[in-house]
Known about the structure:
The complex is a heterodimer of chains A (146) and B (106). Chain A is α+β, with helices and mostly antiparallel strands and 146 residues long. Chain A has one helix spanning 3-37, and strands at 42-44, 47-50, 54-55, 61-67, 77-84, 91-96, 105-110, 116-124, 129-138. Chain A has one domain (3-138): SoxY domain (Immunoglobulin-like, Sandwich).
Amino acid sequence: xxxxxxxxxxxxxxxxxxxxxxxxxxxxxxxxxxxxxxxxxxxxxxxxxxxxxxxxxxxxxxxxxxxxxxxxxxxxxxxxxxxxxxxxxxxxxxxxxxxxxxxxxxxxxxxxxxxxxxxxxxxxxxxxxxxxxxxxxxxxxxxxxx
Amino acid sequence: xxxxxxxxxxxxxxxxxxxxxxxxxxxxxxxxxxxxxxxxxxxxxxxxxxxxxxxxxxxxxxxxxxxxxxxxxxxxxxxxxxxxxxxxxxxxxxxxxxxxxxxxxx
Lengths: 146, 106
């Protein structure tokens, strides 16, 4: 085999592996969201996801999720779940609320292993699910430094 | 006992939304990191957080390895009556801690 063919093949192989990895992660993310939604269709909207678009330290990233809801007995948010695309595990945190929460806002601090997509999904009392997807760039990753 | 901080107002008007911020000292070891000897550190997480308002569950959370060390959780509740809020964190290695705070409702 000629050298240029070998290099080409090696590049092609590396590309294939990388693409499959990303696709596998995206599939896992979709599966995790589907499991949380439990059969209900997930619609983009009604959810606000506050996070810095450029994260300097992935070890502690502040996030805030707000959902538009009256938070009354008849119409409230039951749960908010946060998912990630490229950490070792898809789940980040699940929050369970009710009409006594008063306001559908939660905040926490999370870890991000790499630049990736995050999804917040809110489950309403009527069973509908709403989501918001954000992309973040991470310069210092969590999970690698001891 | 881990050090825990709870920030919330001591008094509120009936029907007000009270913001509660909680922080607890905990390493939240993910189980994916190697220690100084190169061996994987065993997983040590807080798995669950609950808030009871006069023994009624008003808020809870499931935490996973992607939650940062010293978990910070902020949420809110409706001030319904004067009473006690009880916060409980439970996790691996039998970790459990309970803190209480009182809220006076006028």
